[in-house]
């Protein structure tokens, strides 16, 4: 089983577009017979989140995760072609997935909270092994300790599957309470201003160690699991 993450980019996606991506387009993807499918859309519930950073133009408007037996097979190829018809541009990546905190998915329904998707780039001064250690081994516990995270997925990019895909080395998805879209205290799980300052200071120090404070995109989304790749048959 392999996992492919597809980034759909669009300048001004409205809620009708978001509903189409997770609804009819999602149904078409499932009809291809893929093993698993999760769709994240930047809809009205999260669009004005404080935790939004953008370097790409047009920005990422949806993130589609596909599980299939072959990243280079007919199902994934057809899925990418289908999704390309519904956005201004897209990029697909083969990834390896780690899940420090499994998301509390409800099949077919919106996952509780909001999913913040971060696109990471490895700084040139860090070799891949050092970068991965600082991100996954050192930073993971710090992120969990300093934020109100209740779902946490890390995707290490193996390679791009589409031409001219932006250089991205990691794709993170973290789930936060809905209030965290507009409230930093809720985002960091802080009891008061002093606690918020302490948590933010520790978080910045941790992310700085692997270059996740610069040249990063963060995309607030609503998450929908449409087919679990791990459901028993």
TrEMBL record:
Q: Which residues form the EthD domain?
A: 124-181
The terms under GO molecular function for this entry are:
oxidoreductase activity
Supply the name of the protein: EthD domain-containing protein
Organism, by scientific name, is Aeromicrobium ginsengisoli
């Amino acid at each position: 089983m392999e996992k492919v993450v597809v980034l759909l980019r669009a300048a001004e996606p409205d809620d009708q577009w978001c509903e189409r991506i997770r609804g009819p387009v999602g149904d078409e993807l499932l009809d291809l017979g893929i093993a698993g499918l999760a769709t994240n859309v930047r809809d009205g519930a999260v669009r004005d989140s404080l935790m939004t950073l953008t370097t790409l133009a047009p920005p990422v408007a949806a993130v589609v995760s596909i599980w299939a037996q072959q990243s280079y097979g007919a199902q994934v190829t057809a899925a990418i072609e289908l999704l390309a018809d519904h956005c201004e541009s897209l990029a697909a990546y083969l990834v390896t997935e780690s899940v420090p905190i499994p998301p509390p998915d409800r099949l077919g329904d919106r996952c509780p909270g909001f999913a913040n998707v971060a696109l990471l780039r490895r700084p040139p001064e860090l070799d891949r092994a050092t970068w991965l250690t600082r991100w996954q081994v050192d930073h993971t516990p710090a992120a969990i300790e300093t934020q109100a995270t209740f779902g946490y997925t890390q995707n290490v990019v193996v390679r791009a599957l589409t031409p001219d895909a932006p250089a991205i080395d990691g794709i993170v998805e973290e789930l936060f309470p809905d209030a965290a879209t507009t409230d930093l205290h809720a985002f960091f799980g802080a009891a008061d201003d002093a606690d918020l300052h302490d948590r933010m200071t520790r978080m910045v120090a941790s992310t700085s160690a692997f270059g996740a404070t610069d040249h990063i995109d963060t995309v607030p989304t609503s998450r929908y699991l449409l087919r679990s790749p791990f459901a028993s048959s």
